[in-house]
Design a protein that fits this description.
By secondary structure, the protein is an alpha+beta fold. The chain has 14 helices and 23 strands. The strands form 6 sheets. Strands 8, 13, 16, 19, 20, 21, 22 and 23 form an 8-stranded mixed β-sheet that branches. The longest helix is centred in the middle third of the chain and has 16 residues. Belongs to the peptidase C19 family. UBP8 subfamily.
Length: about 500
């Protein structure tokens, strides 16, 4: 985007003023009410091909909407000599003469008056949040011209290609992750792979999202995705049953590596990336190690995509290795998180050299959340592997529909009895809304560790749940979701949710 101004835009404003931009922004960009958004969805159609697209632009000189991806707005600009158009997602002005988007302080002020500026399309920590994608997609399904409670657009089964239920359930969770869905349906990926023989997983995910939200109801066969996974993650190749959690991490890692070439940041710093995967899934885990001799605290912060939570008793089967443990198995997700974030005595066999004492001392270690991701994924460690011993933990762990992570934040710590032992506080009466989450997907494992099957629940609308069992999609109740065993739990930040 150019921030140096545009002579063509300045000449247009001098001759015609800003009224046309005001009208376009008020009625076709801001669209603050439900009625306004429905009107926008009905009206924002390319005047040439009669279809809707998230790359739709409105001519600033006349009444014309045109596709950017199909070059209809470009053809209109060339034939009419109309050099300026407005992007109907961001509200930015594009100059065809300059070949760039133009920043203009006066127009930005108008956008602010209408209640939605370019910055409003940017979420927390710079995460891009496209708007009105669902409304524009309604045009692609002629049977549904409005948002309704029984709309099933986005629901589609996946054929099991031979013990690939582990992949199917993760694909269902990812395709129903709101911000990830919006990114892949918004034509934002610019593939930069040089070797044509090396297929891009991000390009395939774009096609997969288009298949899911095309309105087609027949089950999809994800053979291209399976082939790419086998190519790029050889440890998952073959028709043996794989672990859904392992596939999730491998998929996120591949998408991250195929996306990060577009962000212009140094690949030498893996923690400094603004690709869509890191924007949505990456959080910051703070580790505080406190010297028991001098109370010196050493802090490190590491990125994470998910949190793995133990379901068994603490090591040793009792509370001796934890300052505040009772030795019992956790009884809920909240209890799992409390155990995960409470101080742990490292013991005399794991002494750490203190930076203040300059000698090896016993210490305590505590993990807390420094930065929460947009999507929080919790992995309940149900598969226990030890020397000659493998079992599945089928204990029912209750998990809530709405989750507040405030008690587990680094900012919620306090000092205990003057020893500066950091403990997580219980939820205060005033909890930050930025730390609240809503459940939107649950992956379950049925059977034993030797022979099992993965299914999952996904939330399509705010109060509508569906069970996905490979090619079979059935409606489910919230009660059945919350009573399921639970293996992977996906929560979305409420502050970034929209209907």
């Amino acid at each position: 985007m150019s921030f140096s101004g545009c002579q063509h835009l300045q000449a247009f404003k001098a001759a015609h003023g800003t009224q046309s931009y005001r009208i376009i922004h008020k009625y076709f960009i801001a669209a603050l009410s439900t009625e306004a958004r429905l009107r926008k969805a009905r009206s924002c159609v390319c005047h040439t091909c009669k279809t809707t697209t998230v790359r739709l632009h409105s001519c600033l000189h006349c009444v014309y909407f045109g596709c950017y991806g199909a070059n209809h707005i470009q053809e209109h600009a060339a034939s009419k000599n109309h050099t300026l158009a407005v992007d109907l997602v961001f509200g930015a002005v594009y100059c065809f003469a300059c070949g760039d988007y133009i920043y203009d302080g006066e127009l930005e002020g108008i956008a602010g008056e209408n209640g939605k500026s370019f910055e409003d399309s940017i979420g927390l920590d710079g995460c891009w949040v496209p708007t009105d994608v669902e409304l524009q997609l309604l045009h692609q399904n002629p049977k549904r011209r409005k948002i309704s409670d029984n709309s099933t657009i986005g629901l589609r089964g996946l054929i099991n290609l031979g013990n690939t239920c582990f992949m199917n359930c993760i694909v269902q969770a990812l395709t129903h992750t709101p911000l990830l869905r919006d990114y892949f349906l918004s034509d934002k990926h610019n593939c930069q792979m040089i070797n044509e023989s090396e297929r891009c997983l991000v390009c395939e995910m774009c096609r997969l999202f288009q298949e899911f939200y095309s309105g087609v109801r027949t089950p999809h066969i994800p053979y291209r995705l399976l082939h790419l996974v086998w190519t790029h993650a050889r440890h998952l190749a073959g028709y043996e049953q794989q672990d859904a959690h392992e596939f999730l991490i491998a998929a996120l890692d591949l998408l991250h590596r195929h996306c990060k070439g577009n962000n212009g940041l140094s690949s030498s710093n893996p923690h400094h990336c603004n690709c869509i995967i890191d924007q949505i899934f990456t959080g910051g885990l703070q580790s505080d190690v406190t010297c028991k001799e001098c109370n010196n605290v050493s802090t490190t912060i590491d990125p994470f995509w998910d949190i793995s939570l133990d379901l068994g008793p603490p090591p040793g089967g009792d509370a001796r290795n934890s300052l505040y443990g009772n030795g019992d198995e956790p009884s809920s997700l909240m209890e799992c998180l409390r155990r995960f974030t409470r101080p742990e005595h490292l013991g005399s066999s794991a002494k750490i050299k203190c930076g203040k004492c300059h000698s090896y001392q016993e210490s305590t270690k505590q993990l807390t959340m420094k930065k929460l991701p947009v999507v929080a994924c919790f992995h309940l460690k149900r598969f226990e592997h030890s020397t000659g011993y493998h079992k599945k933990i089928s204990t029912f762990i209750p998990f809530p529909e709405e989750l507040d992570m405030t008690p587990f934040m680094s900012s919620s710590r306090s000092h205990n009895n003057g020893y500066q032992t950091q403990v997580v506080q219980e939820a205060a009466s005033s909890l930050s809304s930025q730390n609240k989450y809503s459940l939107f997907a649950v992956v379950n494992h049925l059977g034993t560790i030797e022979s099992g099957h993965y299914t999952n629940y996904i939330r399509l609308h705010k109060n509508q749940w569906y069970k996905c069992d490979d090619h079979m999609i059935t409606k489910a109740s919230l009660d059945s979701v919350l009573r399921s065993e639970g293996y992977l739990l996906f929560y979305h930040k409420q502050i970034l949710e929209y209907e």
